[in-house]
Amino acid sequence: MPPATSPKTLQQLLNATPFNRFYRFRVVSAAAGSCVIRTPYRPEFARPDGIIAGIIFIASADVAMWLAIAARIGIHERTVTVEMKTNFLRSARKEGFLCRARVMKLGRQLIYGTAECYTPSRGLLSHHTLTYIHLPGDQVR
Question: In whole angstroms, what is the distance from residue 114 CA to residue 102 CA?
């Protein structure tokens, strides 16, 4: 199935969101129902001991899933997170990482998926399961 939305369009959507001025996420790749983003290292992301704060992994997973859904159904469909479970498996210190999200089930109301934050050299850092919901009403224009 071809993507509903291209990586370039997803990056434009991301660039238009005020929160991305802080995070600076970059779309690496996208296909229908999946997306990989790069989260850069920034000193603001680290705790005093240099370990990347868990909230950065959570934000990365949530954004990657939002974009994976958009890659499947388009950017005008309104969806929001209703549940997320996170397992931290390994820490990262003063380094950026990638986050890959995949839509596992696209229902009429709920969308279920997974996201994994990782580095090519260190492997899996965190694993997330996410549930999104389609918002009722008109599509965003």
Answer: 6
Say which residue the tokens 């939002």 belong to. Answer: 66
- For 97, the domain range is 7-134
- Does residue 36 lie in a domain region? yes
Q: Would residue 63 count as lying in a domain?
A: yes
pLDDT tens digit string along 18-60? 999 999 999 999 999 999 999 999 999 999 899 999 999 999 9
pTM, rounded to two decimals: 0.92
Distance from C-alpha of 70 to C-alpha of 32, rounded to nearest angstrom: 8
Question: 109 lies in a domain?
Answer: yes
CATH number of the domain bearing residue 37: 3.10.129.10
- The span from the CA of 98 to the CA of 36, in Å, is 7
Structural domains counted in the chain? 1
- Which residues, 6+ apart, have CB-to-CB distance to 129 below 8 Å? 84, 85, 112, 113, 114
- Does residue 55 contact residue 47 with C-beta atoms inside 8 Å? no
The full DSSP string for 38-52 is: EE---GGGB-TTSBB
